[in-house]
Amino acid sequence: MLAIAAAVLFFIAFLINAADIATNDTFTSTNFMLIGLTVLALHVGGVGTGWSGRGRRR
Fold first, then answer.
1. Which of 12, 27, 28, 35 has its CA at 20 to 30 Å from residue 53's CA atom?
2. Higher model confidence: residue 44 or residue 57?
3. Do the domain assignments include residue 28?
4. Radius of gyration of the CA atoms of the chain, in A
């Protein structure tokens, strides 16, 4: 789920950059890219996967 959120943030950053949309300092394409990278790092780190670190017990 976090990977999908990261992809959406990257797409928004691409649209802002490609369309040359004038935004304020908060909603720049660089900020969206950095938030997307943070969400992607959380996804790769295993946050929000729902897996237990212990594994199954027999």
1. 35
2. 44
3. yes
4. 16
